[in-house]
């Protein structure tokens, strides 16, 4: 089994409004987000060149992140979904699994010390 990944970055604000008011993250604040898409394939599924998927093809994800998430308020971008790192990982996975069936996981980091991963079983 082969796994490839590509990292994307964006900056955005959010409010976790369902947290109690004493929690700092219930106030508006921002993060420099890191998103990693992970794609997997078996030996026989590799392209003739030997790719799970050409990294360059993931350029559409960068363009979409720049358009949809970068310098946005995530509460607006995600609608009713509370913009936790977990929900964001799932939301990005659901957006791209149709175009990239090899997608197995999406990782989202809000701070250098935290990661949330969505990886369907
Ligand atoms: N499981 C989750 N917990 C938290 C999330 C989340 O998305 N999923 N989000 C937040 C905040 O939005 C933000 O990420 C703060 O995280 P935290 O680790 O508390 O950040 P700090 O820099 O304040 O942490 P230090 O411990 O001071 O380094 C909160 N929780
Ligand atoms: Zn936050």
UniProtKB/TrEMBL annotation:
The active site is at 25 (proton acceptor), 71 (charge relay system), 110 (charge relay system). Transmembrane segments: none annotated. Keywords: Lyase, Metal-binding, Queuosine biosynthesis, Zinc. It holds the Pfam family PTPS. Its cofactor is Zn(2+). It catalyses: 7,8-dihydroneopterin 3'-triphosphate + H2O = 6-carboxy-5,6,7,8-tetrahydropterin + triphosphate + acetaldehyde + 2 H(+). Binds 1 zinc ion per subunit. Zn(2+) binds at residues 14, 29, 31. Pathway: Purine metabolism; 7-cyano-7-deazaguanine biosynthesis. Coiled coil: none annotated. GO terms for biological process: tRNA queuosine(34) biosynthetic process. It comes from the Bacteria. Its EC number is 4.-.-.-. SUPFAM superfamilies: Tetrahydrobiopterin biosynthesis enzymes-like (SSF55620). GO terms for molecular function: 6-carboxytetrahydropterin synthase activity; metal ion binding. Belongs to the PTPS family. QueD subfamily. This is 6-carboxy-5,6,7,8-tetrahydropterin synthase. It comes from Streptomyces tardus.
């Amino acid at each position: 089994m082969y796994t490839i990944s590509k990292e994307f970055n964006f900056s955005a604000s959010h409010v976790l409004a369902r947290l109690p008011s004493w929690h700092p993250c219930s106030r508006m604040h921002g993060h420099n987000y890191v998103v990693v898409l992970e794609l997997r394939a078996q030996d026989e599924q590799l392209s003739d060149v030997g790719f799970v998927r050409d990294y360059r093809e993931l350029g559409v994800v960068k363009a979409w992140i720049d358009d949809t998430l970068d310098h946005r308020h995530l509460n607006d971008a995600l609608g009713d979904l509370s913009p936790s790192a977990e929900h964001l990982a799932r939301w990005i996975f659901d957006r791209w699994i149709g175009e990239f069936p090899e997608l197995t996981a999406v990782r989202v980091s809000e701070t250098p010390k935290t990661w949330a991963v969505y990886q369907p079983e």
